[in-house]
Amino acid sequence: MKKRVNVKDILMLQTVFFIYSINSIVAKLASGEERFSFAFIMFYGLELVILGIYALLWQQIIKKFELSVAYANKAITLIWGMLWGAFLFKEQITVTKVAGILLVIAGIVILNNKEGEKA
Question: Which of 1, 45, 69, 85 is an S-S bond match for 91, by CB 3.0 to 4.6 Å?
């Protein structure tokens, strides 16, 4: 049985997914470079570093959460992806995207509340 989850743990979980979402920015930047150019290799190496950091932090997170709860929270990266796309790459935010993300957030909140009630 996992120990009681507190706000600090939930914030750490969300921080880990924020770090993970940065990987998608670097991947998009790498995709704009010529294959095997210096910039492409640099971005690809940065992706590996980010994923390494994420993997180490993820191992610490799953000590505190049930795996099903921690993994379900990974859906928060959809929000980060939409925000990164809009602000950095000038992609369109549509009503459908926002509605879908609100549905995902509702699911995450319900799941986290149920986890808190169990503890």
Answer: 85
